[in-house]
Give the backbone structure.
Amino acid sequence: MANPVKPTWPISNNLTPLETGTVHIWSFHTSRPSKEVELLSQLLHKDEINRAMRMRSLEVREQAIVGRAVLRIFLAGYLGCEPQAIIFASTGMGKPILASHHGLYFNLSHSHGLGLIALSNSVEIGVDVEKVRLIENSLFLAERFFSPWESHTLSQQPGPEMQSIFFQAWTRKEAFLKANGHGLGFGLDRVEVSLGRNETPRIRFVDGCPNEAGRWTVLHLEPGIGFMGAAAFLATQNIQSLTWHWDGKENLKMM
């Protein structure tokens, strides 16, 4: 098991009521001892286990199992049911949703040992997290998948800062694409986002249109040391976001 990521949000294992006009975002460790992975796997349905088993390495398989199981724990906590009772469906574009909607929107992302779950009862939401790391061809990738303005902005950044800005752009774009239900097939280059630590997080353009972009809210997230994240949701009104880190100790003791 890799060394655990150091979280930056307050630790809590207690779910608070999800009120209208709020978004709850939880971070959690996906790298866990084998015994915990085995316990969490018991919450999954057979098709979820089979999907995880097809992944390329033990580490990736275990983190997929943990991510899906923790998602079930959270959904069950907010809905007041057992984790195994959760039935998933998907949109036509493959975005996971609840088979019986219940008025609860959610999204899951994980990267290199850290997971994020975002939940709302009023707006469609997407979330993404990435470990900030050196990517040798980041400028090439930006030229291929980012807008010309984004690529130019990235190229002007000093070396260490460039990697952070690259993942800032990537997570904002992917959070948006997950929120609108289209995923990466929509095209990263069709979405232009603000960049830089001194710039307000936002969608600048969607297909060159500022009006469509203005319908969306973007949150900048740094849930762990060395990690970059974003959440996006379709809302122009003020939405309060609340963030915590779930360590799972009390929940796992009761399993």
Observations:
- The mean pLDDT is 91.
- The chain is about 35% helix and 25% strand.
- Helices lie at 34-41, 46-53, 58-79, 138-145, 148-155, 159-179, 210-213, 249-253.
- The radius of gyration is 18 Å.
